[in-house]
Inverse folding.
């Protein structure tokens, strides 16, 4: 009865975590990266070709899948390419990634996979970024599927698992170029944690039977990757560009962080919001690492995978920590590994400490941490979803921008040209305005203001201390809005249009 009660409570927490991923997906404004991805989906749905850009873009799979989900959502609800319909894809991927933890039950143990599933369901960063229309949540989902397929192939040596391993590699490449980190970490982990068996595996792979398995693996990997990068065999420059991106990709400035940046995000800190962190994940993970390398007496058949998982997670963590370019969502790529190890650590502690009082403490600790994570997820995903005090808010769009968007749309309805009203937007930082103003045909983005421009609205982006041109006060009235933390927008509106706006109100 006690076990049923505990499982019921844990099940409710999982349901709450999944609910947080889908509820009110349009609650916060679009991030710049979200808007760039959204515009590509918008153009594709309007039959405007969108080709892979090796200098700026990640893989095309997010766009291609979003076209499907947006089209299906439109057919069911009539709503077309809104924040909700776009983010539905990543919320779904985030939810599926939670259940993907259970796929690893045969490799790491049923109980450990269950605990990891519970931890992932309410993990604040996993919840928060499932509500972002970016590539990371898809990448995590297919990373977990890759680990399952790879280890199943090594265990069974069956052709079907070779095919699925290759297919997941191809899909990971189609999501984003950092799939090479996953492959590198997996290969290193196999040799370090599985070194005795590795020699036999290499000899087998070099033999006739092994080579017959590698053919479907490589064919599936290349075939799936080419399928998406070639835009379904219509743009053959795409597969080549997917390789050239490693030499041409332009990394934006001002994203350099110290090596311990991700570690501090996990450990967390106290703020005006409260304690924000998941230090307990790392503590439980240490117990999982201890079990993998020092407890050889129990469940020996699972130790190779546990050692592989430890090495894979550590290598991936080191790779992302050493690269100076850092954004908080990249942390998710190795955080899922630590969550898996935390599940192993909790179960190991349960088995090691058999006294009823020790187990009661473990249950209270688990339920307390899950409840605390659920509360963090709600605060960070809703109340402080775009607040700079939120550690996962990174150059996010200010809600104040939506007031400007509403203002411009209201003005266009009063303007004689309607949706063709000319709007000039100046300055290097203006995203996500192209997404929010996508239905206006007269929006232009000139580098410098033109005195002869017929624009009825001018928007200038600037940071503190930067010069902003002043327009004729007899023709325009100005208004100030925020774009994101430290970036502002100065708006000039024609006086006669401004007067009509308030006459109409």
């Amino acid at each position: 009865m006690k076990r049923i009660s505990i499982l019921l409570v844990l099940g409710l927490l999982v349901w709450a975590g999944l609910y947080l991923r889908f509820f009110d997906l349009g609650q916060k404004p679009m991030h710049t990266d979200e808007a760039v991805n959204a515009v590509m989906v918008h153009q594709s749905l309007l039959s405007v070709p969108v080709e892979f850009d090796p200098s700026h873009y990640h893989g095309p799979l997010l766009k291609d899948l979003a076209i499907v989900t947006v089209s299906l959502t439109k057919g069911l609800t009539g709503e077309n390419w809104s924040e909700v319909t776009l983010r539905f894809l990543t919320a779904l991927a985030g939810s599926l990634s939670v259940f993907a933890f259970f796929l690893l039950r045969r490799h790491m143990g049923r109980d450990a996979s269950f605990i990891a599933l519970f931890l992932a369901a309410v993990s604040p960063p996993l919840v928060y970024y499932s509500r972002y229309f970016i590539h990371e949540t898809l990448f995590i989902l297919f990373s977990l599927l890759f680990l399952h397929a790879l280890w199943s192939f090594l265990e069974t040596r069956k052709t079907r698992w070779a095919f699925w391993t290759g297919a997941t590699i191809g899909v990971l490449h189609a999501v984003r170029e950092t799939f090479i980190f996953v492959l590198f970490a997996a290969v290193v982990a196999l040799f370090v944690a599985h070194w005795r068996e590795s020699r036999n595996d290499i000899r087998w792979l070099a033999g006739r039977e092994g080579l017959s398995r590698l053919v479907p693996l490589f064919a599936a990997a290349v075939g799936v990757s080419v399928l998406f990068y070639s835009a379904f065999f219509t743009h053959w420059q795409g597969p080549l560009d997917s390789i050239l991106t490693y030499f041409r990709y332009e990394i934006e400035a001002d994203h350099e962080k110290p090596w311990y940046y991700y570690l501090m995000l996990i450990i967390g800190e106290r703020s005006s919001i409260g304690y924000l962190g998941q230090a307990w994940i790392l503590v439980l993970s240490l117990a999982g690492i201890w079990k993998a390398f020092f407890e050889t007496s129990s469940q020996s058949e699972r130790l190779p995978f546990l050692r592989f998982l430890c090495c894979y997670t550590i290598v991936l963590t080191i790779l992302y920590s050493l690269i100076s370019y850092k954004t908080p969502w990249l942390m998710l790529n190795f955080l899922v590994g630590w969550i898996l190890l935390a599940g192993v650590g909790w179960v190991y502690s349960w088995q090691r400490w058999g006294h009823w009082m020790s187990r009661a403490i473990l249950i209270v600790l688990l339920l307390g941490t899950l409840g605390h994570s659920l509360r963090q997820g709600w605060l960070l995903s809703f109340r402080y979803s775009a607040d700079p005090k939120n550690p996962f808010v990174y150059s996010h769009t200010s809600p104040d921008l939506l007031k400007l968007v509403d203002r411009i749309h209201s003005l266009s309805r009063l303007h004689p040209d309607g949706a063709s009203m000319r709007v000039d937007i100046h300055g290097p930082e203006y995203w996500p305005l192209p997404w929010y103003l996508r239905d206006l045909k007269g929006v232009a983005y000139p580098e410098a203001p033109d005195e002869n421009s017929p624009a009825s609205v001018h928007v200038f982006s600037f940071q503190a201390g930067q010069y902003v041109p002043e327009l004729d006060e007899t023709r325009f009235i100005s208004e100030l809005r925020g774009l994101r933390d430290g970036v502002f927008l100065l708006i000039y509106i024609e006086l006669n249009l401004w007067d009509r706006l308030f006459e109409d109100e």
The chain has a mean pLDDT of 84. Residues 412 and 418 are 5 Å apart (CA to CA). The chain has two domains: 2-154+175-191+253-383, 400-504. The two ends are 63 Å apart (CA to CA).
